[in-house]
Amino acid sequence: MSLTDEGESRLTTDQAFDLLGDGERRRALAALREFEEAVSLDRLAEATAARRDAVTPVEATSDEVTPDQRERVAAMLHHAHLPRFEDAGVATYDPMAGEVELTEAADDLEPYFEVMEEYRESVQSESVRSD
């Protein structure tokens, strides 16, 4: 992370692209953005798995996630993705309590999510026009 003039930690562009460059991390961060406070690892895994097959975030529903899918995603989050989120300072993870929460540094990812949303919307509108 780099420091702003006020001494606050900020993500570099490389760090942001590293975090968002993996689809599973991107889905997990997107899911975390929807929770107002700390969330259980199981709930995050379920929300992340639901986003895997959804075309839009609105279509993501946890009803279709199997226990096996939730367990696999939880293991990936626990062993690979959540440590990266913590290293980058965008989330805190308490493995003993099984809780994950975004930090203020995650706000640095917002412009990237906005661009991804705009792109998704433009692709969908192009698809509708060509049908």
Give the SSE layout.
Blueprint: E1 2-3, E2 9-10, H1 13-20, H2 23-33, E3 39-40, H3 41-53, H4 67-88, E4 91-94, E5 99-102, H5 110-130
Helix pairs in contact: 2-3, 3-4
How would you portray this structure in words?
The chain has helices spanning 13-20, 23-33, 41-53, 67-88, 110-130, and strands at 2-3, 9-10, 39-40, 91-94, 99-102. The strands form two sheets. Strands 3-5-4 form a three-stranded antiparallel sheet. A two-stranded antiparallel ribbon has the order 1-2. The protein is mostly helical. It has a single domain, classed as Arc Repressor Mutant, subunit A, CATH 1.10.10. This is DUF7344 domain-containing protein. Pfam families: DUF7344.
Low-confidence stretches: 1-5
- Gross morphology is globular
List the total number of helices: 5
| Arrangement of strands in the largest sheet | 3-5-4
Radius of gyration: 16 Å
User: Helix amount, in percent?
Assistant: 55-70%
Ends distance: 45 Å
Describe the largest sheet: 3 strands, antiparallel
Q: How many strands in all? A: 5
User: Could you report the average pLDDT, rounded to the nearest whole number?
Assistant: 87
| Total of domains | 1
- CATH topology, anyone? Arc Repressor Mutant, subunit A
Query: CATH top level?
Result: Mainly Alpha
InterPro entries: DUF7344
Pfam families: DUF7344 (PF24035)
Organism: Halorussus gelatinilyticus
Protein name: DUF7344 domain-containing protein
